[in-house]
From TrEMBL:
This is Uncharacterized protein. It comes from Desulfobulbus propionicus (strain ATCC 33891 / DSM 2032 / VKM B-1956 / 1pr3).
């Protein structure tokens, strides 16, 4: 069984490797890499919702995120449950080569 910390370390290595691969690829792969940001944002929201369902406080979540309790709630709280805050522009869908 893989521990969560080991799993996240592996994922980090894979993301760095993807960046190196895309550096030598074309703009279509770059667009695909950028789209992973949305997947990441959704995964963070799922994780935070799960932490909250197990009783984790907004203070503890904020500490993990480098935010205040209030900042964490404003970004990920119940008011935003169905909305993933994403300050990045939407990826451009390029035609296939």
């Amino acid at each position: 069984m893989v521990e969560t910390a080991d799993y996240l370390k592996m994922l980090s290595r894979m993301i760095r490797a993807a960046g190196r691969r895309v550096a030598a690829a074309d703009e279509h792969e770059l667009a695909m890499l950028i789209q992973l940001r949305s997947e990441f944002d959704q995964a963070v929201q799922v994780a935070i919702d799960g932490q909250r369902s197990f009783g984790r406080s907004w203070e503890h979540i904020g500490l993990a995120l480098g935010l205040s309790r209030q900042g964490a709630f404003q970004r990920y709280g119940s008011k935003r449950k169905n909305e993933i805050k994403n300050d990045l522009p939407k990826p451009v869908h390029l035609p296939p080569p």
